[in-house]
Specification:
The protein has 9 helices and 8 strands. By secondary structure, it is an alpha/beta fold. Strand 6, helix 6 and strand 7 form a beta-alpha-beta unit. Helix 3 packs parallel to helix 4, helix 4 packs parallel to helix 5 and helix 8 crosses helix 9. The longest helix is centred in the middle third of the chain and has 18 residues. The radius of gyration is 17 Å and the shape is globular.
Length: about 260
Amino acid sequence: MIDSHCHLADEAFAGDLDEIVRRARDAGLERVMVILEAGNAKEAAQAGRLERLWPEVRFAIGVHPHQAHQFADDPQRAAAVVRDQCLATSTARAVGEIGLDYHYDYSPRDVQHAVFRAQLRVALELDWPVVIHTREADEDTIAILQEEGQGRLRGVLHCFTGGDRLRDAGLGLGFYISLAGILTFPKAADLRATARGVPLDRLLTETDSPFLAPVPHRGKRNEPALVARVVEALAEMHQAPADELARRTASNFHTLFRP
């Protein structure tokens, strides 16, 4: 079982990181993919600590759309920061999370676009997969992935909450679809219906911890061990044993990220 997207380098885990790792391993997790904010020294330091605790951990590094404004004067600088940190991190395997967020608009949309495109070009240069964040920006996200990727990009739509149209567009790009704890929320019936249409060989599981703890832990700090609840929910939906679903999604992770 694998948590394909979590934020264990976040300060929310600084006080009990060793216990978090122990619980994840006890729950049967083989490894996790930890998202790092490019250029964030505190996260990089905690990532080093995490590597010592759990050598199997892997990282994705990128500039989130919320931070894109920091590179408004020079989007190529964002690309340079990401490239340099990726190449300096032996356990890094992906560029991300990157993308567009029109819900909060913490960064101007034209800046988000420029920083997103610059990082996609880094991923193509390195031949690495991308971890995509899209919120209320699905059409522009897909359009940019098509324009920049030209069929050569691989990656995942993380913490998927979209509908059939986004699902089909992502699958059409050859991307994977990753589901998080939202899948277990009572009002997520539409998401569950859409998720049923994702082939088993294109599914990933994640927590996006410390956010979005699944039922019955909703409202509490999320952590990688709770990805087991996401696996259970997907197994129920696909009428498959949970251990089989865990094996399939772990295999998908290895295919995409080549850890």
